[in-house]
Design a protein that fits this description.
GO terms for molecular function: ATP binding; ATP hydrolysis activity; L-isoleucine transmembrane transporter activity; L-phenylalanine transmembrane transporter activity; L-valine transmembrane transporter activity. Pfam families: ABC_tran, BCA_ABC_TP_C. Among the domains are: 89-169, no CATH class; 220-260, no CATH class. It is 42% helix and 23% strand. The chain contains 11 helices and 10 strands. It has a 6-stranded mixed β-sheet, with helices on both faces. The chain has a 4-stranded antiparallel β-sheet with strand order 2-1-4-5, with helices on one face. The longest helix is centred in the middle third of the chain and has 18 residues, at 121-138. Bound molecules: adenosine-5'-triphosphate.
Length: 261
């Protein structure tokens, strides 16, 4: 059974069809790329998978459980985590606290221990701190632990977002343009890091990305959306040569540049 099964998923906003009969099966351990020109519907897929949007029709089944009507926090607890295209951190909190909050978001202490700050709350608190510091180390962010998140350079903020997503202990990780705003060297480092965390945490990953060096270097399978419809699916090599894909990107300045990278 696939880890994730998306069947005939549709999302409309008034008269605009953002996603049209989208199908996707993702097997455990896969690293799948989702690409397409601006406005193609990529982030809408993530918003539907994480419960931020409810589909107009269609179904999403994760580990055999239907996600219909489930709110985002429950979906996080079920094992789907994401990062955002526009970074969403608690800018005025420390880097460490940003990760600790993500850990706490999926824990149930029970109200009484949490209120009186007695075990198991206090015991879990020190465990969380240890685990959060460990994650910061993995993401090469430990030296920033006490720094306010908003003061981090852009590339580091993106890595902190990934650390926060990992803190919720996902099985499926959704990365929305993780290389946006990074220079080529940072992008290459990110590529190695994503490969490494996938192995280390046994993750299945879906990646939205405009940077083709990252998509081609990382993904085993790539899906291409255009105007809400899936126009191609295949290996990175197949996708690069697909006439429909080339046509979809032609005339879109960003797309052409992206392919040439
Ligand atoms: N909440 C919303 N309300 C109205 N329209 C929306 C909403 N969210 C997305 N859309 C529209 O749906 C379409 C798909 O948007 P989406 O953000 O999924 O595209 P995308 O492929 O992620 O684009 P980009 O690469 O620019 O991020 C766009 O036309 C967008 O304007």
């Amino acid at each position: 059974m696939p880890l994730l099964t998306v069947n005939r998923l549709n999302k409309s906003f008034g008269g605009l069809v953002a996603l049209n009969n989208f199908n996707l099966n993702v097997e455990e351990g896969e690293l799948v790329g989702l690409i397409g020109p601006n406005g193609a519907g990529k982030t809408t897929v993530f918003n539907l998978l994480t419960g931020l949007y409810q589909p107009t029709s269609g179904s999403i089944v994760f580990e055999g459980r239907d996600l219909k009507g489930k709110p985002p926090h429950l979906i996080t607890k079920m094992g789907i985590a994401r990062t955002f295209q526009n970074i969403r951190l608690f800018g005025n909190l420390s880097v460490l606290d940003n990760v600790k909050i993500a850990y706490q978001s999926v824990l149930n202490y029970g109200l009484i221990p949490a209120f009186f700050r007695v075990p198991p709350y206090s015991r879990r608190e020190s465990e969380i701190e240890k685990e959060a510091l460990g994650l910061l180390e993995i993401m090469h962010l430990e030296r920033y632990a006490a720094e306010k998140a908003k003061n981090l350079p852009y590339g580091e903020q993106r890595r902190l977002e990934i650390a926060r997503a990992l803190a919720t202990k996902p099985r499926l990780l959704l990365l929305d343009e993780p290389a946006a705003g990074m220079n080529p060297q940072e992008t290459q480092e990110l590529l190695s890091l994503i490969r490494w965390i996938r192995e280390r945490f046994g993750l299945t990953i879906i990646l939205i990305e405009h940077d083709m060096s990252l998509v081609m270097g990382l993904c085993e399978r790539v899906l291409v959306l255009n105007y809400g419809s899936l126009i191609a699916e295949g290996t990175p090599q197949e996708i690069q040569q697909n006439p429909k894909v080339i046509e979809a990107y032609l005339g879109v300045d960003e797309g052409v540049t992206a392919w040439e990278e």
